[in-house]
Fold this sequence. Notes:
This protein has 1 helix and 22 strands. It is mainly beta. An 8-stranded antiparallel β-sheet has the order 4-3-2-1-5-22-17-18. The chain has an 8-stranded antiparallel β-sheet with strand order 7-6-11-16-12-13-14-15, with no helix packed on it. A hairpin with a 3-residue loop joins strand 9 and strand 10.
Amino acid sequence: xxxxxxxxxxxxxxxxxxxxASSSVADSFxxxxxxxxxxxxxxxxxxxxxxxxxxxxDGFTTIPHGECIAxxxxxxxxxxxxxxxxxxxxxxxxxxxxxxxxxxxxxxWQHDWIGELNxxxxxxxxxxxxxxxxxxxxxxxxxxxxxxxxxxxxxxGFVLDLTPVLQIETDSDTGNRTLEIQHDRIGExxxxxxxxxxxxxxxxxxxxxxxxxxxxxxxxxGHLEFGDHVHAVESSPDDQSGPxxxxxxxxxxxxSSIHPI
Length: 261
Protein backbone atom coordinates (compact mmCIF):
# COMPACT_ATOMS: atom_id res chain seq x y z
CA UNK A 1 0.00 0.00 0.00
CA UNK A 2 2.83 2.40 0.86
CA UNK A 3 4.44 1.75 -2.54
CA UNK A 4 1.11 2.44 -4.26
CA UNK A 5 0.70 5.67 -2.33
CA UNK A 6 4.23 6.71 -3.25
CA UNK A 7 3.53 5.92 -6.89
CA UNK A 8 0.31 8.00 -6.85
CA UNK A 9 2.15 10.90 -5.26
CA UNK A 10 4.90 10.71 -7.87
CA UNK A 11 2.32 10.57 -10.66
CA UNK A 12 0.51 13.60 -9.27
CA UNK A 13 3.75 15.53 -8.89
CA UNK A 14 4.88 14.58 -12.40
CA UNK A 15 1.55 15.65 -13.92
CA UNK A 16 1.67 18.93 -12.01
CA UNK A 17 5.21 19.64 -13.19
CA UNK A 18 4.24 18.86 -16.77
CA UNK A 19 1.29 21.21 -16.53
CA UNK A 20 3.51 23.99 -15.21
CA ALA A 21 6.28 23.32 -17.74
CA SER A 22 3.87 23.42 -20.64
CA SER A 23 1.94 26.51 -19.49
CA SER A 24 3.70 28.72 -22.04
CA VAL A 25 2.23 26.63 -24.86
CA ALA A 26 -0.85 24.90 -23.45
CA ASP A 27 -4.10 26.78 -23.12
CA SER A 28 -7.34 25.82 -21.40
CA PHE A 29 -10.32 24.76 -23.51
CA UNK A 30 -13.43 22.65 -23.17
CA UNK A 31 -13.14 19.62 -25.44
CA UNK A 32 -16.35 18.49 -27.14
CA UNK A 33 -15.74 14.98 -28.49
CA UNK A 34 -17.69 12.79 -30.87
CA UNK A 35 -19.52 11.06 -28.01
CA UNK A 36 -21.09 14.36 -26.99
CA UNK A 37 -19.14 14.63 -23.74
CA UNK A 38 -17.43 17.85 -22.69
CA UNK A 39 -14.41 18.05 -20.42
CA UNK A 40 -11.75 20.65 -19.53
CA UNK A 41 -8.35 20.08 -21.15
CA UNK A 42 -5.22 21.94 -22.06
CA UNK A 43 -4.41 21.97 -25.76
CA UNK A 44 -0.68 21.57 -26.41
CA UNK A 45 -0.25 20.53 -30.03
CA UNK A 46 -2.10 19.79 -33.27
CA UNK A 47 -0.16 17.36 -35.42
CA UNK A 48 -0.82 15.29 -38.54
CA UNK A 49 -1.22 12.13 -36.45
CA UNK A 50 -3.42 13.51 -33.70
CA UNK A 51 -4.15 16.27 -31.21
CA UNK A 52 -2.12 16.42 -28.00
CA UNK A 53 -3.90 17.50 -24.83
CA UNK A 54 -3.33 17.46 -21.09
CA UNK A 55 -6.24 15.85 -19.28
CA UNK A 56 -6.62 16.25 -15.51
CA UNK A 57 -7.21 12.49 -15.18
CA ASP A 58 -4.99 10.97 -17.89
CA GLY A 59 -2.21 13.55 -18.13
CA PHE A 60 -0.69 13.88 -21.59
CA THR A 61 -2.96 12.23 -24.16
CA THR A 62 -3.09 12.13 -27.95
CA ILE A 63 -6.53 11.88 -29.54
CA PRO A 64 -7.34 11.27 -33.23
CA HIS A 65 -8.73 14.21 -35.19
CA GLY A 66 -11.87 12.22 -35.87
CA GLU A 67 -12.74 12.00 -32.17
CA CYS A 68 -12.69 15.76 -31.69
CA ILE A 69 -15.67 17.97 -32.52
CA ALA A 70 -14.35 21.26 -31.17
CA UNK A 71 -12.23 23.04 -28.57
CA UNK A 72 -14.25 25.83 -26.97
CA UNK A 73 -13.45 28.38 -24.30
CA UNK A 74 -14.89 27.69 -20.83
CA UNK A 75 -16.45 31.18 -20.78
CA UNK A 76 -18.07 33.14 -23.64
CA UNK A 77 -15.90 35.78 -25.25
CA UNK A 78 -17.64 39.12 -25.89
CA UNK A 79 -16.75 40.02 -29.46
CA UNK A 80 -16.33 43.59 -30.61
CA UNK A 81 -14.86 44.26 -34.04
CA UNK A 82 -13.47 47.74 -34.60
CA UNK A 83 -12.67 47.50 -38.29
CA UNK A 84 -14.40 46.64 -41.58
CA UNK A 85 -15.26 42.96 -41.99
CA UNK A 86 -16.01 40.76 -44.98
CA UNK A 87 -18.26 37.73 -44.45
CA UNK A 88 -18.35 34.87 -46.98
CA UNK A 89 -21.28 32.62 -47.83
CA UNK A 90 -19.56 29.68 -46.08
CA UNK A 91 -19.34 31.58 -42.77
CA UNK A 92 -15.72 32.71 -42.95
CA UNK A 93 -15.20 36.23 -41.65
CA UNK A 94 -12.19 38.52 -42.14
CA UNK A 95 -11.72 41.86 -40.37
CA UNK A 96 -9.44 44.08 -42.42
CA UNK A 97 -9.49 46.64 -45.20
CA UNK A 98 -10.63 46.70 -48.80
CA UNK A 99 -7.87 47.06 -51.39
CA UNK A 100 -8.20 48.21 -54.99
CA UNK A 101 -7.80 45.27 -57.37
CA UNK A 102 -7.55 44.81 -61.14
CA UNK A 103 -10.50 42.40 -61.50
CA UNK A 104 -14.09 43.55 -60.78
CA UNK A 105 -15.12 39.89 -60.30
CA UNK A 106 -12.75 39.57 -57.35
CA UNK A 107 -12.41 41.59 -54.16
CA UNK A 108 -8.97 42.32 -52.72
CA TRP A 109 -8.97 42.29 -48.93
CA GLN A 110 -6.05 42.87 -46.54
CA HIS A 111 -6.12 40.80 -43.34
CA ASP A 112 -3.75 41.48 -40.45
CA TRP A 113 -2.16 38.03 -40.12
CA ILE A 114 -3.33 36.05 -43.16
CA GLY A 115 -2.21 38.70 -45.63
CA GLU A 116 -3.86 39.88 -48.83
CA LEU A 117 -6.81 37.87 -50.09
CA ASN A 118 -8.31 37.77 -53.58
CA UNK A 119 -11.91 36.66 -53.06
CA UNK A 120 -14.41 35.97 -55.87
CA UNK A 121 -17.30 38.38 -55.43
CA UNK A 122 -19.82 35.54 -55.77
CA UNK A 123 -18.36 34.03 -52.57
CA UNK A 124 -19.05 37.22 -50.58
CA UNK A 125 -22.17 37.37 -48.41
CA UNK A 126 -21.71 40.87 -47.05
CA UNK A 127 -19.17 43.58 -46.34
CA UNK A 128 -19.51 45.53 -43.09
CA UNK A 129 -17.80 48.90 -43.47
CA UNK A 130 -18.94 50.78 -40.40
CA UNK A 131 -21.50 51.24 -37.69
CA UNK A 132 -22.58 47.59 -37.50
CA UNK A 133 -21.51 44.49 -35.60
CA UNK A 134 -21.60 41.02 -37.27
CA UNK A 135 -23.98 39.85 -34.54
CA UNK A 136 -26.40 42.60 -35.51
CA UNK A 137 -26.52 41.81 -39.21
CA UNK A 138 -29.93 42.03 -40.82
CA UNK A 139 -31.20 39.16 -42.98
CA UNK A 140 -32.77 40.26 -46.24
CA UNK A 141 -35.31 38.23 -48.21
CA UNK A 142 -34.62 39.64 -51.66
CA UNK A 143 -32.97 38.60 -54.91
CA UNK A 144 -31.12 41.92 -55.17
CA UNK A 145 -28.01 43.38 -53.61
CA UNK A 146 -28.73 45.69 -50.67
CA UNK A 147 -26.63 48.64 -49.53
CA UNK A 148 -27.41 50.06 -46.08
CA UNK A 149 -26.14 53.59 -45.56
CA UNK A 150 -25.03 55.05 -42.26
CA UNK A 151 -27.89 57.56 -42.34
CA UNK A 152 -30.43 54.70 -42.40
CA UNK A 153 -31.25 54.79 -46.11
CA UNK A 154 -31.36 51.51 -48.04
CA UNK A 155 -30.47 51.11 -51.72
CA UNK A 156 -31.41 47.92 -53.60
CA GLY A 157 -30.16 46.89 -57.03
CA PHE A 158 -27.24 45.15 -58.68
CA VAL A 159 -23.71 46.00 -57.53
CA LEU A 160 -21.52 46.62 -60.58
CA ASP A 161 -18.26 47.44 -58.81
CA LEU A 162 -17.03 47.64 -55.22
CA THR A 163 -13.86 49.74 -55.54
CA PRO A 164 -12.67 52.45 -55.50
CA VAL A 165 -16.30 53.59 -55.03
CA LEU A 166 -19.36 51.38 -54.95
CA GLN A 167 -21.41 51.39 -58.16
CA ILE A 168 -24.93 49.97 -58.02
CA GLU A 169 -27.52 49.76 -60.78
CA THR A 170 -31.05 50.51 -59.56
CA ASP A 171 -34.53 50.57 -61.07
CA SER A 172 -36.42 53.84 -61.34
CA ASP A 173 -39.55 55.16 -63.02
CA THR A 174 -37.41 56.36 -65.91
CA GLY A 175 -35.43 53.13 -66.27
CA ASN A 176 -32.19 51.78 -64.87
CA ARG A 177 -29.64 54.16 -63.46
CA THR A 178 -26.22 53.73 -61.88
CA LEU A 179 -25.42 55.29 -58.53
CA GLU A 180 -21.95 55.86 -57.10
CA ILE A 181 -21.64 55.74 -53.31
CA GLN A 182 -18.48 56.56 -51.34
CA HIS A 183 -17.42 53.91 -48.83
CA ASP A 184 -17.49 56.35 -45.91
CA ARG A 185 -21.28 56.64 -46.35
CA ILE A 186 -21.89 52.88 -46.22
CA GLY A 187 -22.66 50.74 -43.19
CA GLU A 188 -23.09 47.42 -44.95
CA UNK A 189 -23.13 45.88 -48.42
CA UNK A 190 -25.33 42.77 -48.53
CA UNK A 191 -24.73 40.80 -51.73
CA UNK A 192 -27.28 38.36 -53.08
CA UNK A 193 -26.23 34.71 -53.11
CA UNK A 194 -26.77 31.31 -51.61
CA UNK A 195 -25.24 30.17 -48.35
CA UNK A 196 -22.57 27.47 -48.57
CA UNK A 197 -21.72 24.80 -46.04
CA UNK A 198 -18.73 25.48 -43.76
CA UNK A 199 -15.58 23.39 -43.83
CA UNK A 200 -13.33 22.01 -41.09
CA UNK A 201 -11.00 22.72 -39.51
CA UNK A 202 -12.39 26.16 -38.68
CA UNK A 203 -10.78 28.67 -36.32
CA UNK A 204 -12.50 31.52 -34.44
CA UNK A 205 -10.15 34.19 -33.07
CA UNK A 206 -10.77 37.05 -30.66
CA UNK A 207 -10.23 39.67 -33.38
CA UNK A 208 -13.38 38.48 -35.17
CA UNK A 209 -11.70 36.23 -37.72
CA UNK A 210 -13.48 32.99 -38.64
CA UNK A 211 -11.31 31.07 -41.06
CA UNK A 212 -10.90 27.63 -42.61
CA UNK A 213 -7.44 26.20 -43.28
CA UNK A 214 -7.03 22.67 -44.65
CA UNK A 215 -4.11 22.13 -42.27
CA UNK A 216 -3.37 23.77 -38.94
CA UNK A 217 -0.88 23.23 -36.16
CA UNK A 218 0.69 24.90 -33.13
CA UNK A 219 4.21 26.33 -33.10
CA UNK A 220 6.61 25.56 -30.21
CA UNK A 221 5.84 29.00 -28.72
CA GLY A 222 2.08 28.43 -28.83
CA HIS A 223 0.99 30.25 -31.98
CA LEU A 224 -1.43 28.98 -34.61
CA GLU A 225 0.43 27.54 -37.59
CA PHE A 226 -1.27 27.31 -40.98
CA GLY A 227 -0.62 26.88 -44.68
CA ASP A 228 -1.83 29.14 -47.46
CA HIS A 229 -5.44 30.16 -47.49
CA VAL A 230 -7.34 29.22 -50.65
CA HIS A 231 -7.89 32.93 -51.43
CA ALA A 232 -4.36 34.10 -50.54
CA VAL A 233 -2.76 36.32 -53.18
CA GLU A 234 0.75 35.05 -52.56
CA SER A 235 1.78 31.61 -51.41
CA SER A 236 4.31 31.19 -48.64
CA PRO A 237 7.06 28.54 -48.87
CA ASP A 238 6.83 27.87 -45.13
CA ASP A 239 3.98 27.52 -42.68
CA GLN A 240 2.84 30.90 -41.42
CA SER A 241 2.46 31.89 -37.80
CA GLY A 242 -0.84 33.35 -36.67
CA PRO A 243 -2.27 34.44 -33.32
CA UNK A 244 -1.29 32.86 -30.03
CA UNK A 245 -3.59 30.22 -28.56
CA UNK A 246 -4.65 32.80 -25.97
CA UNK A 247 -6.25 34.78 -28.82
CA UNK A 248 -8.19 31.79 -30.18
CA UNK A 249 -11.77 31.36 -29.06
CA UNK A 250 -12.76 28.10 -30.78
CA UNK A 251 -11.18 25.45 -33.02
CA UNK A 252 -13.56 23.10 -34.82
CA UNK A 253 -12.53 19.77 -36.31
CA UNK A 254 -15.96 18.31 -36.91
CA UNK A 255 -18.52 20.89 -35.93
CA SER A 256 -17.94 23.96 -38.08
CA SER A 257 -21.68 24.57 -38.20
CA ILE A 258 -21.63 25.38 -34.47
CA HIS A 259 -21.88 29.04 -33.50
CA PRO A 260 -19.68 29.82 -30.47
CA ILE A 261 -20.78 32.72 -28.27
